[in-house]
Design a protein that fits this description.
heterodimer, A: mainly alpha, 3 domains, 15 helices, about 70% helix, globular, B: mainly alpha, Non-ribosomal Peptide Synthetase Peptidyl Carrier Protein, Chain A, 3 helices, about 50% helix, acyltransferase (chain A), membrane (chain A), cell membrane (chain A), transmembrane (chain A)
């Protein structure tokens, strides 16, 4: 049969256009035909996991059933007044919820790079959603649960493969609602704009950097690696910038498709990028780069850790607590990318940068009077941040592993 | 002590900025005055001083970003 990966080729976009005609007409006239939305969602998900990807499809079905049960049971536990909010029950729920992802992430490490048979495209992003839900259920922030809405949220097809990572309560608010005509017209305009911008990003700029130039630069860097200490050649610098541009345009392009498609369905999926390369420091950068991921880690890991550590008075100094929080956040993020040395170094580097940046901000606050702040200092800050970020992406790319050890 | 005074005191303490009471509608996140760490401290102070519980996941940033909005939220929670 047929297999069509999301946002990869013209067939996908053509099919999307056809499937969306009735949906857009409906929403424009104030109707959300939820059965129709579910039908096309199932169709597109089926096309991702059809033909040679059938095993992945079964893994997704198994995963969905397990997650639905975990969330449902935990919700029952939390809303039943007979039980108090036991931490260990919560920990077990989280543990069960991430179990399949952990197995999938560890299998390549233990089985010589082979993928697990319970792996499927998008498992990470779905797990972020369910873990976020379990945490909000523990907090009592999620007060309603329905299987249908859970499935709609978890399997929302425009974002199923790689995000952006939405939040349950935010999503349901949109899903339960039909935008009025004038705001829906606004959404269509924005959505179409995002999709066209995505085409420019992913298929023109991403193609130029990633397919046309990057392999050549990599070849040059490999050819010269023995002539320079640590293989650091001009070509390697080229690889660094070229890969960084590719990474941004490819992923930002994908994200624009996902957000644009969501808008056409009247769902305001959050944006993933906000001009990351004009960031003035590394903290600013993480507020602009892969935002739904960094905000997820900020809200569900960093802030919760800091809250707990401050309350338990784990350390006297709140600076120590904040720094430990950064280490925890970025190590987890690094490990989530994969169990390779370069992801872990990437995580540690960003934790270090955040810690250093906080120290600098404290110093700046204290000595505000003596430090100049003008257009030149701002541009220098942007230039410095950009270069540090590109360097971290060179590590992230894994090319150094090839350059040094292969 | 009323909510407004308490909240403004906490905010002034956390940000080290005593002019906060003159800019009640300025976004504390955009200006960088309130980072995630300070936000968590704010929640803890509210818990200790006013006895209101705000779990981290209830903190919708767009509803907590200015001193005035924080006062409104706290008032709302105290009377709930």
């Amino acid at each position: 049969m047929l297999n069509i990966q999301p946002y990869q080729n013209p067939q996908y976009f053509l099919l999307l256009l056809l499937a969306f005609i009735p949906l857009v007409i409906g929403l424009y006239n104030g109707h959300r035909w939820r059965w129709y939305e579910s039908l096309i969602s199932l169709l597109f998900i089926f096309l991702i996991f059809d033909a040679d990807k059938t095993i992945q499809g079964f893994a997704l079905i198994g995963y969905t059933i397990t997650q639905a049960l975990i969330v449902k049971i935990y919700f029952h536990y939390r809303t039943n007044k007979r039980f108090n909010n036991n931490f260990w029950i919560f920990a077990v729920a989280i543990g069960l919820s991430i179990l399949q992802l952990v197995v999938v992430k560890l299998t390549p490490l233990l089985a010589n790079g082979k993928d697990s048979i319970i792996a499927f495209l998008g498992i990470s992003y779905l797990t972020f959603k369910t873990v976020g839900m379990i945490i909000e259920i523990r907090d009592g922030a999620i007060k309603e649960f329905s299987f249908i809405k859970f499935l709609q949220f978890l399997l929302f097809f425009p974002t199923i493969s790689s995000g952006p990572i939405d939040r349950y309560r935010r999503f349901i608010k949109d899903y339960d609602n039909v935008p009025d005509q004038s705001s829906y017209i606004g959404l269509i305009g924005q959505g179409v704009h995002y999709i066209f911008l995505g085409l420019l990003y992913k298929f023109i700029l991403g193609y130029l950097f990633g397919t046309l130039w990057l392999p050549e630069l990599e070849q040059m860097a490999m050819a010269q690696r023995h002539n320079h200490p640590f293989g650091i050649s001009l070509a390697l610098v080229g690889v660094m910038y070229c890969y960084s541009m590719y990474l941004f345009f490819d992923f930002a392009g994908y994200s624009l498709f996902a957000v644009g498609t969501s808008y056409l369905m009247g769902i305001k999926t959050p944006m993933n990028f906000n001009l990351p390369f004009i960031s003035q420091n590394i903290k600013d950068f993480w507020n602009r780069w892969h935002m739904t991921l960094s905000f997820w880690f900020r809200d569900y890991v960093y802030m919760r850790f800091v809250f707990w550590a401050l309350k338990k008075k784990l350390f006297k100094s709140r600076i120590t607590i904040a720094n430990l929080g950064y280490l925890l956040l970025f190590l987890l993020m690094g490990l989530w990318h994969g169990e390779y040395w370069y992801y872990i170094i990437y995580g540690l580097l960003h934790a270090g940068l955040m810690i250093g940046n906080d120290a600098w901000l404290r110093f700046k606050k204290k000595h505000q009077k003596y430090l100049p702040s003008n257009r030149f200092t701002k541009l220098s800050a942007i230039f410095l941040t950009f270069n540090i970020v590109c360097f971290s992406f060179l590590i992230f790319s894994g090319f150094l592993d090839t350059l040094w050890f292969k | 002590m009323d909510t407004k005074e308490t909240v403004l005191n906490i905010l002034a303490d956390l940000t080290g900025d005593t002019t906060i009471q003159n800019n009640l509608d300025e976004s504390l996140f955009d200006s960088g005055l309130l980072d995630s760490m300070a936000t968590v401290q704010l929640l803890l102070e509210l818990q200790q001083q006013l006895d209101i519980d705000v779990p981290v996941s209830e903190l919708e940033r767009t509803e907590w970003d200015t001193p005035n909005k924080i006062i409104t939220q706290v008032d709302h929670l105290r009377n709930a």
